[in-house]
Specification:
The complex is a heterodimer of chains A (about 280) and B (about 260).
Chain A (H helix, E strand, L loop, with lengths): L12 H21 L5 H4 L1 H12 L8 H36 L16 H19 L2 H12 L3 H26 L3 H8 L4 H35 L7 H10 L3 H29 L1
Helix pairs in contact in A: 4-5, 4-7, 4-9, 5-7, 6-7, 7-9, 8-9, 9-11, 10-11
Chain B lengths: L1 H23 L3 H5 L1 H12 L8 H36 L5 H16 L2 H12 L3 H26 L3 H8 L4 H35 L7 H10 L3 H30 L2
Helix pairs in contact in B: 4-5, 4-7, 4-9, 4-11, 5-7, 6-7, 7-9, 8-9, 9-11, 10-11
Classes of the chains: A mainly alpha (about 280), B mainly alpha (about 260).
Chain lengths: ~280, ~260
């Protein structure tokens, strides 16, 4: 079979070993910085506390009073996501209209490329959108909790701001990606920009916009649960309270509700997308 | 049917929006009143004078390094755990092992990082250790699933040839399957690392270390100037990671 004269070892072994060593040397300071210590998990007292906590997971809490509270929190989460998305839309559409190049009048006579100063005017809006979406939503939530107090208002505002940034950017990109000829024809024939948008861009862009918006709504539900951990209302806030009170059963039923909610939102958004796109 | 769908669905959506505003009892009038706006403006104005003193900047640099370390170590642990779970999840050890490991991967993935972090803070105490573990657990679920799919799609001929030539199972996997799989594993892991850097900076809100914990502390102490510097640092980090990954993608993936 194989030629016995050939060495019986991996010819690339040395370079692989060297690469591994370099990676380890680079990661070594990280190990001390991140204070990684798996031992804490199986340490006596910690393990005992965790054991008690985890053993409470079964059966999940299902008292009538608790279920009522859970239902209210779930509805609140849904409402935060929906209201936040509505406000984000109200902010994102004007920003996208201001930021998109495809509605530029100076671009009509220049083959789709606006004049430099027209580009420069669009940059502040783009910068604003970048800043809105680059600060994570939970940071916005924390800031708004400090500004308007604990409760769902902070969550709605945080979702509105972050998602306005994301929606605005994506809408502007969608407007630019559709066929520009109808828009140019409309503007060239003397239509106003809004008319050109409504009859030239919008009919081509609706499907994609809707599908992205529904997808973001789904993300907003997940985000609003997470944002509850800094006090922005909904399921997350209740979950945070239960975790702090070591109420394992309540945490278990909330996690189950969360999973169910995400699953249902996923199904619903698939349905909506199939309906419209 | 058609007009029904055409008018009923949008109407339903509008109703849902109105109902959610009503349910939350958002006091827009209180928010938009002169008093409310003035209060918000005063609060916001405090953020426009970031604290750029040297000790604070040094503390931020340390926090940023801690965040990076948390994300890197967490992702590495996750890749190891993910690969370990991906082998049974790709059906290499029978159907029962496949079902169990898939269930485990789904459970790990379905719970968000922040919830894991809150649980890990209970289990392992405050500090970056909890954040690293939380990232590792959630990311293991995500990577495990991706790895399992990659494993299933890898051509099996090379490892079969090695097995036929008398190689052991481990040898056939290391020299037959892994070389084709490797680039995909690295690409997925790097992509998740990029996500985790962003995530690691906010895990601190529940006490899991990094920049987030600093931000939470300074906001709790009403030190808006310090907080605004930390937010700027986060923004800088996110934009840098975005730019670097965009560059790397164009440099290596396109070609």
């Amino acid at each position: 079979m194989l030629n016995p004269a050939l060495p019986q070892r991996d010819p690339a072994a040395r370079s692989r070993l060297l690469l591994t060593l370099i990676a380890l040397a680079l990661l070594w300071p990280g190990l001390s910085l991140s204070e990684l210590d798996l031992g804490v998990l199986i340490d006596g007292s910690n393990a005992q506390t965790m054991g008690v906590f985890l053993s409470g997971f079964w059966p999940p809490a299902h008292g009538a009073e608790f279920l009522f509270l859970l239902g209210r929190a779930t509805l609140e989460t849904l409402a935060i996501a929906t209201a936040g998305m509505a406000m984000a839309l109200a902010l994102a559409v004007p920003c996208a209209l201001l930021a998109t190049r495809s509605l530029s009048i100076s671009a009509v006579s220049r083959g789709g490329r606006p004049r430099p100063w027209a580009q420069a005017v669009r940059w502040p809006v783009r910068g604003l959108l970048i800043i809105l979406r680059s600060v994570p939503e939970i940071v916005w939530a924390l800031l708004f909790v400090r500004a308007v107090g604990l409760g769902p208002t902070a969550g709605v505002l945080a979702i509105a701001i972050t998602y306005a940034g994301m929606l605005g950017k994506v809408y502007a990109e969608i407007f630019e990606s559709v066929d520009p000829l109808p828009t140019r024809a409309l503007i060239g024939a003397g239509g106003s920009r809004l008319q050109a948008f409504a009859y030239g861009v919008l009919p081509q862009a609706t499907g994609e916009m809707l599908s992205y918006t529904v997808y973001r709504w789904e993300c907003a539900i997940r985000a609003s649960v997470v944002m509850g951990f800094v006090g922005a209302g909904g399921l997350g806030q209740q979950m945070d309270l239960s975790i702090r009170m070591f109420a394992g059963g309540e945490v278990a039923s909330m996690l189950l509700t969360f999973l169910l909610l995400v699953l249902l939102a996923d199904l619903f958004s698939q349905l909506l997308r199939r309906r419209f796109v | 049917m058609k007009p029904l769908a055409r008018y009923a669905l949008p109407l339903l959506l509008v109703l849902a929006v109105v109902a959610s505003f009503a349910y939350l009892q958002l006091e827009a009038s209180a928010l938009l009143s002169r008093e409310g706006v003035g209060q918000m403006a005063r609060y916001a104005a405090a953020f426009f004078s970031p604290d750029l003193s040297a000790p604070h900047l040094r503390a931020i640099a340390y926090g940023a390094l801690e965040t990076l370390a948390m994300s890197a170590i967490g992702t590495l642990l996750a890749a190891a755990l993910g690969l370990l779970l991906a082998l049974p999840a790709a059906g290499r050890f029978g159907l029962i092992a496949k079902a169990i490991s898939r269930l485990l991967l789904n459970a790990l993935r379905a719970i968000p990082e922040l919830v894991w972090a809150a649980l890990m803070v209970l289990a392992a105490g405050l500090g970056p250790n909890a954040g690293t573990l939380a990232l590792a657990l959630h990311t293991a679920g995500v990577l495990g699933r991706l790895f399992a799919e990659a494993l299933e799609n890898t051509p099996s001929e090379p490892s079969e040839a090695l097995r036929l030539a008398g190689s052991g199972r481990v040898g056939a996997f290391c020299y037959g399957t892994l070389p084709t799989l490797w680039p995909q594993l690295v690409a997925y892991t790097l992509y998740r690392w990029e996500n985790n850097i962003r995530m690691a900076s906010v895990l601190g809100f529940v006490g899991a270390g990094g920049l987030g914990q600093m931000l939470y502390m300074s906001l709790s102490l009403f030190q808006e100037a310090q907080a605004s510097t930390i937010i700027l640092a986060m923004l800088l980090m996110v934009l840098t990671v975005d730019a670097l990954s965009g560059w790397a993608r164009q440099r290596w993936v396109r070609s």
